Amino acid sequence: MPKWSASLAGALVAVVALCGATHPAEAAASRIKDLASIEGVRENQLVGYGIVVGLNGTGDSLNNAPFTKQSLQAMLERMGVNTRGANMRTANVAAVMVTANLHAFATQGTRIDVNISALGDSKSLQGGTLLVTPLMGADGEAYAIAQGPLTVGGFSAKGDAASITRGVPTSARIANGAMVEREVEFKLGTMSTVRLALRNPDFTTARRIAMAINDLIGVPSAEPIDPSTVRLTLPPKFNGNIVDLITDIEQLAVEPDLPAKVVIDEATGIVVMGQDVRVSTVAVAQGNLTVTVTEQPEVSQPDPLSQGTTVTVPRTQINVDDGAKKKMTIMRQTVSLRELVDGLNALGVGPRDMITILQAIKAAGALQAEIEVL
């Protein structure tokens, strides 16, 4: 088995052994805060177009980036400088796209982080400063204003005969680089009903969350609507608002229930299986025909005074492995995850062969799990 296959196989055994060692009844419970989010309490994406100045000759080429030239001319005109028709050859300016996430309940004056990415053919944004850039939401309204010096994680250096680049010098970040100017209206405290959105939709998990909430409150205030939604109603006799109620139920522990699933990444040969994967009785055999040809040429020296010449004599060694030592293994009905992996490892199956075998078992109707290929 190649070295990379052996390492992946070892990692796979460790993962599945950890999953198989935990009995479903002993699975760790999670907080409702980690299983679901409050509908409406979310981030909003912002985007803007800006100009970075102060670059040390690593900015956009104005001839190759007409948008940078037009933006520079428009900015100078707003400041009373007329550059129309002039031959501008500066390389210290770059056009960039600025993105940010406006977190929930961000108030005016709150600062948020922004990410900057070069739009033209700039070589590096090192040492640059972002000029005032409005950040707009999906509705076209400006919600924040970004400005400040850039922090670049990568760098690039170049000489006459060699160059080196580490990281991405055309991508930067400004911590607290934008100030919120417009708030997103969402009055959670005045609401009498909210919906919990499960991050991993499941009927059983939704019902368990509703039961845990009702047990805490003592009245049926939570109701599962579908696999991904639990509706929570403020009880009439509850002293407080919906925020107080959410605070109380966030820390409730609920054991999530997930469907049996096998996730396969064929590009890297990684296989991840859940603890509830089961296999019906099936026989599995795996074997490959491997032919190894090794060339070991030898040098033949002539006898002394024989007036002969030195020649190279070819030597070829051929080995054939027809997989005769690999036997068929029977997977008993309702075997556990650990037994399934142990049986496949007993056949000397690598991760990539295991992918094919699992797909074949699924095609035979013996794998009681869903296969998802990334």
TrEMBL record:
GO molecular function: structural molecule activity
Keywords for this protein: Bacterial flagellum, Cell projection, Cilium, Flagellum, Periplasm, Signal
GO BP terms, alphabetized: bacterial-type flagellum-dependent cell motility
Cellular component, GO annotation: bacterial-type flagellum basal body, distal rod, P ring; outer membrane-bounded periplasmic space
Compartment(s) where it occurs, according to its Swiss-Prot or TrEMBL record: Bacterial flagellum basal body
Origin: domain of life: Bacteria
Pfam family, one: FlgI
Stretch forming the signal peptide: 1-27
Family under the similarity heading: Belongs to the FlgI family.
Function statement: Assembles around the rod to form the L-ring and probably protects the motor/basal body from shearing forces during rotation.
PANTHER family noted in UniProt: FLAGELLAR P-RING PERIPLASMIC PROTEIN FLGI (PTHR30381), FLAGELLAR P-RING PROTEIN (PTHR30381:SF0)
Subunit structure comment from the entry: The basal body constitutes a major portion of the flagellar organelle and consists of four rings (L,P,S, and M) mounted on a central rod.
HAMAP family (alphabetical): FlgI
Protein known as: Flagellar P-ring protein
Organism placement in taxonomy: Bacteria, Pseudomonadati, Pseudomonadota, Alphaproteobacteria, Hyphomicrobiales
Gene from which the chain derives: flgI
